[in-house]
TrEMBL record:
Ranges where the GGDEF domain occurs: 412-544
All copies of domain EAL, residue ranges: 553-801
Protein name per the record: Diguanylate cyclase/phosphodiesterase with PAS/PAC sensor(S)
The PAS domain, residue ranges: 134-205, 255-301
Domain PAC: 328-380
């Protein structure tokens, strides 16, 4: 007879069976499961549900730590764990990132376990993303419902009530939580017991009946009871008990009318269609937005509003979302009745019946026209010049870059003009900035009119850029500029007065003058500044020669800066002799610059650059101070009557502080003012500038002598020379070089000098014959290579001592 009892298993077999059972339960658990080391966060094991949920392979997950998928920062995680510990719970709400980047809200239930002496967390992962969304929607419905609602837990005890429940039955929320409705609001003589209701609901019946319920003060209320059991995966988790106060039907009707009025009068358009997409109802806002009346839209398909700006794929995607997810949200362009196309933000959701089939669609429309208008205003602030309305530097540089990309792709040319208003600074200084602004506005209008096909921008102050359409030929560029300059022959009216304005422009073309945006703009600027050297209303094309000149100018600028910083300047002296007896009477101080990289740089090259960039003031101080110091280091200058002649630029003379600076240097070095000669050009000497004249007179009053350099090359005014009490005339070396042809001129200059009681100095004496002529003509002094070349101070010192 067979034994009815099974054979007893060994402990090892039992353990193995349990491990196999655990593994089976672990792998086939309906939730994702992670085994985690709490100290390190290392994921030690995962089940297949976790692999499917997180989209990583098992190996990938087991090489990760929990922080790789938990998007919360460590501090927030610690805070949540602390709160859970404080509340004696092992349940957490985290946000986890899947492999495809999607973020999901999850509830993590962690159970501490010991495995082979290792502390681990057995973590069940529940995806609550949809639950949270639905919970938020439910809470809104729950709290805003016009009906009294109680939520009953699985034991049919009240777990939550809304405000209308409290208002309807007179109980506060805290008074009813945890109690059965039977003991709170059921009348004592209710024949329908609570158990009867429970029996029906557990059979899945939605309970609906008119009944009586008891108020806290004892009076009975006629209500319609609707009890809805809530199931998740066939498990009853809660019951919604909805109570409709039948005695307040009129009030509810009024309330519903109020809600309808709100819906009707909301600023957002609302449209409702049936399942066949035929419009059944619209509110006034929808009619206002589309400009169609209700009668014109009822029964029609919303495609009546299509703008034609979206392709079939767009609408296919929209309907895919509607049929799949029951909703769609996005921006769409529609057309009003008057034909205007406008943007709107559209939310569509489906209303579904008990079988889950949509029976209506609700669309909520927000007109985005004003938003777009604001965006355009913001775009205008970013891209447009506020004063003129033209595009600004930011916009034109961005567009030019795109133009050049297209020009390269399609093998086209591109042309840019860079221009400004000549002497604009003087307009601001003499007429005021309001007049300057008005001129800029008028100039902007004229530029847009003449260059209508081009992009016109104001870069800064009075600088403008014009970008022609790609492929514009040179003939059209010249024609447009000619028309523009012709328009400038007409006056501009500023402060009720007419003013004639001129402009200068530079032209640069892609690809000949540069392939990069910034290079083209710079080269057009270079060409413009070259055009400014001529009379106004001119333009120049950029050439490599101009570019090299500018590069050299900046190179020389760097050399000057280095020379000032590293003391690379040094002085040479060219003696001046008495023509009659050959005695040295002084010397002209000449500045030299030897750069370690560029070598000897000519004064003719670096002096104009120094004047342009403002270095001339520092250089002038350095020359005067060092010349005075070196000269006073000799007996000939300490005890004799030799003079020093130093060249002075017009910029120095326009500096009101220049006489004080000179006086300070003379006081510092002890050099006598009466033996210092400042040489100024002929043009400077006759300047109409009151500032220059005042400076020269101040220097003369200090005892300093003033010589007119390169005399005969300009247009001197004898009255001006006499008025300024000049001391010397220096005949330009060009007259001495061609003495055979300029004999009469030289005689006339010498005679004029004598009549004005001025010493006459001849420059550039290179032959014995020239010196003999000057001696016979009665010239006072001379200098030149025939007499002495410029020399370092040590050589000059030997010569005079």
């Amino acid at each position: 007879m067979p034994n009815r009892h099974h054979a007893r298993q060994s402990p090892s077999e039992t353990g193995r069976d349990y491990r196999e059972l655990y593994q089976e339960l672990f792998e086939h658990h309906h939730l994702p499961v992670l085994i985690i080391e709490p100290e390190t966060g290392l994921i030690r094991d995962v089940n297949q549900k976790a692999v499917s949920f997180y989209q990583y392979s098992k190996d990938e997950l087991m090489n990760m730590v929990i922080s790789d998928i938990n998007i919360l920062d460590p501090d927030t995680i610690k805070a949540k764990m602390y709160a859970a510990k404080k509340n004696n719970t092992n349940s957490f709400h985290f946000r986890h990132r899947l492999k495809d980047g999607e973020i999901r809200d999850v509830k993590v239930d962690s159970i501490p376990v010991d495995f082979n002496g290792t502390h681990l967390l057995y973590s069940l992962i529940t995806d609550i993303t949809e639950t949270l969304e639905k919970d938020s929607f439910f809470k809104a419905l729950f709290n805003q419902s016009p009906y009294a609602i109680a939520i009953l837990n699985r034991d049919y005890r009240i777990s939550e009530v809304n405000g209308h429940f409290e208002a309807l039955f007179g109980y506060g929320r805290e008074e009813v939580l945890g109690l059965s409705p039977e003991f709170v609001i059921y009348p004592l003589d209710d024949e329908s017991s609570m158990q009867d209701h429970i029996d029906q609901m557990e059979r899945g019946v939605i309970l609906t009946r008119d009944t009586l319920r008891k108020h806290k003060d004892g009076h009975l209320i006629n209500v319609e009871l609707i009890a809805l059991p809530v199931y998740i995966e066939s498990h009853l988790i809660a019951t919604l008990a909805i109570y409709v106060d039948q005695t307040r039907e009129k009030e509810l009707e009024a309330h519903n009318q109020m809600l309808a009025s709100v819906l009707e009068n909301t600023g957002e358009g609302v449209v409702i269609t049936n399942a066949n997409s035929q419009i059944e109802w619209i509110n006034q806002a929808f009619s206002t937005i589309t400009e169609y009346t209700e009668q014109e839209l009822i029964g029609k398909n919303p495609r009546l509003l299509k703008s034609g700006q979206h392709n079939a794929a767009f609408y296919h995607s929209m309907w895919h979302d509607l049929t799949t997810y029951g909703k769609w949200t996005g921006e769409i362009w529609n057309r009003r009745k008057n034909g205007d196309v406008y943007p709107e933000w559209l939310k569509i959701f489906a209303l579904k019946d008990e079988e889950g089939e949509p029976y209506r669609y609700v669309g909520i429309v927000t007109d985005m026209s004003e938003v777009r208008a604001r965006e355009e205003r913001i775009d205008s602030l970013i891209n447009q010049d506020k004063l003129t309305g033209l595009y600004n530097r930011y916009y034109v540089m961005r567009e030019l870059e795109q133009d050049l990309i297209a020009a390269e792709r399609y093998n086209q040319t591109a042309t840019i003009l860079f221009g400004d208003i000549d002497a604009f600074k003087s307009i601001n200084e003499n007429l005021g900035h309001a007049a300057g602004d008005e001129l800029l506005r008028q100039m902007a209008d004229l530029l847009q009119e003449v260059f209508a096909k081009a992009l016109v921008a104001r870069l800064s102050s009075d600088e403008f850029a014009i970008v022609f359409p790609r492929g514009t030929d040179d003939f059209e560029v010249r024609e447009r500029l000619g028309l523009f300059f012709n328009e400038l022959k007409k006056p501009f009216t500023l402060h009720n007065e007419d003013f004639y304005i001129t402009c200068s422009f530079g032209v640069a073309r892609y690809p000949d003058n540069g392939r990069e945006r910034d290079d083209l703009m710079l080269n057009a600027d270079i060409a413009m500044h070259h055009a400014k050297k001529r009379e106004g209303n001119t333009f120049d094309y950029y050439t490599d020669v101009l570019g090299n000149q500018v590069k050299r100018e900046f190179k020389v600028k760097t050399v000057i800066q280095r020379a000032l910083d590293e003391n690379l300047f040094h002085l040479h002296y060219q003696p001046t002799l008495s023509v009659q007896d050959g005695v040295i009477v002084g010397a002209e101080v000449l500045l030299r610059l030897d750069d370690p990289e560029e070598g000897r740089v000519s004064p003719g090259e670096f002096i104009p650059v120094a004047e342009k960039f403002g270095f001339i003031y520092s250089i002038g101080d350095w020359v005067l101070r060092n010349a005075c110091k070196e000269a006073l280091g000799t007996d000939a200058y300490r005890d004799g009557n030799l003079f020093l002649a130093v060249n002075v630029s017009v910029q120095q003379l326009e500096n009101e502080a220049f006489p004080e600076q000179v006086d300070a240097i003379l006081e510092e070095t002890g050099f006598p003012a009466e033996r210092l000669v400042f040489e100024v050009t002929e043009e400077t000497s006759i300047s109409d500038s009151d500032l220059v004249s005042g400076t020269l007179n101040a220097l003369i009053e200090m005892g300093i002598q003033v010589a007119i350099d390169d005399f005969g090359t300009g247009y001197s005014s004898l009255g001006k020379i006499h008025q300024l009490n000049m001391h010397q005339l220096k005949i330009d070396q060009s007259f001495i070089r061609d003495i055979e042809k300029t004999t009469d001129i030289v005689h006339a200059i010498i005679a004029m000098g004598k009549s004005l009681r001025l010493n006459v100095v001849a420059e550039g004496v290179e032959t014995e014959e020239q010196l003999a002529f000057l001696k016979e003509a009665g010239c006072d002094f001379a200098q030149g290579f025939y007499l002495h070349r410029p020399m370092p101070f040590a050589d000059y010192r030997q010569l005079i001592e």
